[in-house]
Design brief:
- The structure holds two protein chains of two kinds.
- By secondary structure, chain A is mostly helical.
- Chain A is elongated and about 75 Å long.
- In chain A, about 65% of the residues lie in helices and about 0% in strands.
- Chain A has one domain: Orthogonal Bundle (Globin-like), CATH 1.10.490.10.
- Chain B is mainly β.
- Helix content of chain B is about 5%, strand content about 55%.
- Chain B is globular, with a radius of gyration of 18 Å.
- The chains are: A mainly alpha, B mainly beta.
- Chain A: This is Group 1 truncated hemoglobin.
- Chain A: GO terms for molecular function: heme binding; metal ion binding; oxygen binding.
Chain lengths: ~140, ~270
Amino acid sequence: MVNNIKHRLMILSVLLLLSTGCANQPTSLYQQLGENEGISKITDNFLVNLSQDQRILHHFEQTDIDIFRQRLIEHLCVVSGGECIYQGASMFNAHIGLHISQADFDAVVSHLIEALKQQHIPLATRNALLAKLAPMYQDIIEH
Amino acid sequence: MVFSVLLSLVVASAQADTSKVIATGGATTIEGSAGGGIVPWAVINGYASSDQWSLTAMNTTVYVDDFTLHSIGASLSIDNRFELSIAKQTFDLDTLGGKLGQDIVGVKYKLVGEVLYTAMPQISLGLQYKRVDDFALPQAVGARDDWGLDVYLAASKVYFDAFAGRNLVTNLTLRATKANQIGLLGFSTATNNDYTLQTEASIAVLLTDNIALGYEYKQKPDKLTFAQEQDWQDIFVAWFVNKHLSVVGAYVDLGNIAGLKQQQGWYLSVEGTL
């Protein structure tokens, strides 16, 4: 009887250990991106990459970069499951009249991938984020 | 020689102005169209996106037990919409003696979808006009024509984060063809001049951003009576070194060819893109 209880306690403690082990692992995509701090750094790298690309710079001539940066951070936070509030327009409304071409979109995706790499975000996390962002193509392109 | 000059040009031009994400142009098949090694995909070759163009040159050799297939080719891609390609194949009958060959002119047009971004797969329509160099041997083994036209419909889609955090590339191609051994042994026979519908498929996992591991299957007709023709398959590793250089290595199984059984061996392709 005592042995049986000991045995059960052991199993319980192993389970507890395992579950705390899991709790210490980042679970949500938001956490894997480094939460607010990580997403801010990714955004800054991304903006620097964009600013060096003459092909797409003209799209940002009328843009307040500080506000754009803040909206982008909020957007990445919401998309990755963080508890933020995105205060910007919908992806569709935000790109009306900007004539974003497929080439522009492709270039932006490459710059985002590069920014994620610069922050040492692992491949699986990068792919998980791209999976969430890719469908926005329809709302952003040419309208 | 021409190829190495092209390649050095490609490597010298460090900054092409093309936008597509690396690896999304695929490799180039032995028929000159963008795809895997033996299956054309719906993707357009190179890295040109809208309002851009790119040039790709490839040099491929397939060594199997009793034959060597050599293919050189080039393609022009416009707007990520059109692909024009040419390829010259020479097929050495190493143990039988002799040589076969053909020229292939291809065109591909993207109908709908975006391989990375839309739920709808990217779907393209392709044509390949093929003409054999010397019709004597194909005619002797029963081929009817020295030229043929292949028509194919290809669908390609990348699934992000498909498993273990890796992206999956899938392709399905339906091809109407009259070709015997992809055209190297001519087209149709005296008794059978019908198009046959063949299914081809590829699947690949992007292990890293620029290394893909994949498998391809190519169904083939079997019209010539002198020898059985079998389906082809391969397992490939593609390394997209950068946007200007990629290398594909594969282990291929071409089945029975011209009465010689189980033709298995190696495939090596190097290509440069401007």
